[in-house]
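As a warm-up, study this chain.
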Amino acid sequence: MADDTPKKLPPRWERSPSGVFDVYANVSHITWTLDDIRIRLGQLVASADLGTPGKDYRSVAEERAAVTFSWRAAVLLRDQLTLLIDEFEKDNGPIPLDTKLPKAPF
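Now compare it with the structure written out below.
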């Protein structure tokens, strides 16, 4: 018996006429509602108040962008990231999560 169900094709990606906003982030903050998930992306930068390294030094996470996903889109993103991370680690070894930054020499 032939399957007459039409195949669902993935969406075709097109370039935005206004360009793409690229952002670098090394920290994130996630909040959620029953409808969606919001991820705030930031970059750790020196604090304007405590710009001199020392025992009281504190960096700040400067917000760079925020993205809101539906829960369905979040699950699809999770699955894509899992596959990507698994392939990366298969080729390069485990990604260390406990990396310590060297202490400042002063």
